[in-house]
Every structure is written in C-alpha cells, then in structure tokens.
Design goal:
InterPro entries: AdenyloSucc_lyase_C (IPR019468), Fumarate_lyase_CS (IPR020557), Fumarate_lyase_fam (IPR000362), Fumarate_lyase_N (IPR022761), L-Aspartase-like (IPR008948), Pur_lyase (IPR004769). The protein has 477 residues and is mostly helical. It is built from 19 helices and 4 strands.
C-alpha cells in the first residue's frame, strides 16, 4: 500500500471484498468487453457481416485487460471508452474493426452501471436476509422478557426485549420489500445509440425497424436482463440512480435508528454490543466499553442518507438528451453509497451476532418503575376488597408523590409499595401485591406479537432463502 497517498477508508476499513470487487476496474472493464461481445453476437445473428473467428477472438481476451495500453491511450485522447476500444482492438486484430460497432460510450458505460448496481443490490439483499436471521433469533430468545418501554426517552409502559427488536426488524422488512421491488424493475439501457433514437443501428441493419428492436432485446438477454428501458436519451434516466440510492438510504435510516437504540441501551447497561477480549474502549479511560460499532454504523449511515440527495440533484440538473456533469459525481456517489451500505449491514450483523443482554439490570429498572404503573391495578384490587375508590385514589396520589420524592430528592429506592402495604385502608398483603406486580402482566400482547410477526413475515423469507443464510462477519477493524 502506498502510504504517501490518500486511501479510501471504505475499502481499507469498512466494506467487504465482495462489494469492492463489483465496483473494481476488473469487473467494470470485463463487463464492457462482455457487452461488446454481446453486441457483436447479436449483430451477427441479425445478418451483419461479423465472423465467428472475430467473436471467438474477442472472447479469448474478455478478461485479460491490457490496462497499460488503455491508460497510455487515454492520456493522449482524454476518452476512456475509446481508449479501451483501442486496447481491446490491439489484442483482437481480426475483430478490431467491428468492436463497438454502431454504439456510443453510454452503451458500455451506462449498461455496465446498471449491471453493477443490480449485482450490488442482490448482494445487499443477501446481507439483509442474514441480518433478518440474527435479529429473528434474538427476538425469539427474548420475546417475553419484560423491559421498560420509553417514549420521549421517559419511562413508559412495559414492552419486551424481543418486541423492541421486532421494531428494528419491521423497518428492515420495509427496506427489504423496496429492495426486492427495485431489483425486479432494473433494466438495461440497451442498444440505443447517441441520442437514444437507435439511428446508427437502423442504418447498420438496412432500415429494418424490427431488427433494431430485436438487437436491443438480444443484447439484454445475453447480459441476463429481461428488458431494456423503452426510451432513453444518450443515457438511462438519472432518476434510476436516485431510486437505487433511495433504497440504500432507507436501509441506512433503519440501521441508524436501530444502533441509536443500542447505544442508549448500552448507556443504561441493559444491552451491549460485542466487546472483544483485547478490545480497547478508550485510550485514556481503560475501563470504558464504548459502543463503537454502533457509532460507526450511525456515522456511515448519515453518509449514505446524504448521498441520495446528490443523486437527486444530478437527476434534476440534466439537460436534454444528456450532459456530462453527471459523470464525475456518479463515479464517486454510487460506488461509495454501496460500499458504505455494505459496511453498515456487515457491522450490524456482527453486532447482532453478539448482543449481550443484562437481565438483572433490566429487571431492576422495571421494578423501580413498575409500582407507579401498577397503581391502577392496585386501586382496582383494593376496591374489590371493599375500599372506597375515590378515597383510595387520593391516598395513592399522595403516596406516589412521596415515593417520587424519595427517589428524586433523596436518591432512595421507590418505596411506594411499602407505603401501600403500611396503609390499612388498602387491605392488601405482600403476596397480593407481588401477584399484582408481576411484570409479565404489563407487557400486553408483546410476546404474542413477536411470535406472530416472525411466523407470518420473517420466517417465510428465511425459508425461501436458506441458501443465502450463513457465515460469520469478520470486521476489518
């Protein structure tokens, strides 16, 4: 590694090798050559004078990219596509004259972008399914463990640890559905020519409109796509980039919210992200166990969310059939958005693989707040035993205020239950209150909701994608 130059941290530190390969030069320029071969084969099938020998020669050099020749040529011509046409032609002297026949730069540039984004979306799909698997196991394991719910980050009614995890899963399920939809509607730009009119191909195919339409379809099929966009300018609509990055933004939003919750829970010492044996939390405070993985997810998520706005601005500022002010922006925004999304999915999966739940801390916090929540049940039971509802209501109000003072002003434990036990007007014994204060009575249908959600929505996805599940995520840092 050249340490004297800036290195991209997404590659050095965060993203997986799989996603990095999809955006590599090797994948890009091999795909260019596959497209040129698909074009030549399709043209041959439609009667253009292209020989089998020419196509076989191109195939022999499909993956052996002579970068040095292309780089030298680009320095002279300032044109990347023509430099690679030249370099490919150097390796294929028989086919040199028919490479890129009738095509414009967007034939390889835009079609390759669509192919790379499609494959990258499929990779993210696989990663979300693995995250589903980890979160589903966690939700099921803790489906009935009562925990304090929060609204406004203030104590609220109880929920369960597993139910809270299903909220994270539900957000990701919405993202998964958007991802599936987007993968299903990805199309090639196809063979459309310089301004999308297919004029060059119409000339090449002797004015035969049906053959031109067939050429478009044949190229798509050879590249693994069912269809091409019906109309384009010189490029596919840049709205596609925004739609794709919007899907990534949705994933980032979900993971940012989820890891925010984990960071807050770690502060409360209820749940912690994994902390390895030799991991250091702070350079100064050796005892600290910072939620650095969740913080990293939040940090990269904001980058992905912001990047989708970049694609929106590019789409909205295009002129007529195209302008080139999209190119440099796309080269950075799209790969880095995918690399960052890949990273946050891997990091979150790693977190969920080792989440630590501190049941006793959760129980203590529930017990400290439950007496206030149980006052309505206590009141009803005392009335059932002959008490006056209005008098007891006032007594509970006074006792509650005194108990709150003990907690907030004196730093003592919540003694509301002891105050009620000492008040004969309630006619309740210790065992009576213990039954009323069973936390499981305050979680509503949370355990059942977890089971229903997992059974009806998550498990079918996991069952349909068993082959995609497995493996352990090892983070680079």
């Amino acid at each position: 590694m050249d340490t004297s130059l800036y290195q991209n941290p997404l590659i050095e530190r965060y993203a997986s090798k799989e996603i990095s390969y999809l955006f590599s030069a090797d994948y890009k320029f091999t795909t260019w050559r596959k497209l040129w071969i698909a074009l030549a084969e399709s043209q041959q099938e439609l009667g253009v004078n292209i020989t089998d020998q020419q196509i076989q020669e191109m195939k022999r050099h499909m993956t052996t990219i002579n970068y040095d020749v292309a780089k030298k040529r680009e320095k002279e011509t300032r044109h990347d596509v023509m430099s690679h046409v030249y370099a490919f032609g150097e390796q294929c002297p028989q086919a040199k004259g028919i490479i890129h026949l009738g095509a414009t730069s967007a034939f390889v540039g835009d079609n390759t972008d669509v192919i790379v984004m499609t494959e990258a979306l499929k990779l993210l799909r696989k990663k979300i399914i693995n995250l589903f698997h980890k979160l589903a196991v966690f939700s099921q394991d803790y489906h009935d463990l009562p925990t304090l719910g929060f609204t406004h980050f203030q104590p609220a009614q109880l929920t369960t640890v597993g139910k809270r995890a299903t909220l994270w899963l539900h957000d990701l399920l919405m993202d998964f559905e958007n991802l599936e939809f987007q993968i299903g509607r990805m199309k090639l730009r196809g063979a459309k020519g310089t301004t999308g009119t297919q004029a060059s191909f119409l000339h090449l195919l002797d004015g035969d409109h049906e053959k031109v339409k067939s050429l478009d379809k044949k190229v798509a099929e050879k590249m693994g796509f069912n269809d091409t966009y019906a109309v384009t300018g010189q490029t596919y609509s840049r709205k596609l980039d925004f739609e794709v990055l919007s899907v990534l933004s949705g994933i980032a939003q979900s993971l940012h919210k989820m890891t925010n919750d984990i960071r807050l829970l770690q502060n409360l010492k209820e749940i912690e992200e994994p902390f390895e044996k030799n991991q250091i939390g702070s350079s100064a405070m050796a005892y600290k166990r910072n939620p650095m993985r969740s913080e990293r997810v939040a940090s990269l998520s904001r980058y992905v969310i912001a990047a989708s706005q970049n694609a929106a601005m590019t789409a909205s500022t295009q002129w007529f059939e195209r302008t080139l002010d999209d190119s440099a922006n796309k080269r950075i925004t799209i790969p880095e958005s995918f690399l960052a999304t890949d990273a946050i999915l891997d990091i979150t999966t790693n977190i969920c693989d080792g989440l630590v739940v501190y049941k006793q801390v959760i129980k203590q916090r529930v017990e400290s707040e439950l007496p206030f929540m149980a006052t309505e049940n206590i009141l009803m039971e005392a009335v059932r035993r002959g008490g006056d509802r209005q008098e007891l209501h006032e007594k509970i109000r006074v006792h509650s205020m005194e108990a709150a003072k003990q907690v907030k002003i004196h730093g003592n434990k919540n003694d509301l239950i002891q105050r009620i036990l000492s008040d004969d007007e309630f006619n309740l014994k210790q065992e009576d209150l213990e039954k009323l204060l069973d936390a499981r009575n305050f979680v509503g249908r949370a355990p059942e909701q977890v089971k229903d959600f997992l059974t009806e929505f998550i498990q079918p996805i996991l069952d349909q994608n068993k082959s995609s599940i497995g493996g352990k995520v090892d983070l680079q840092v």
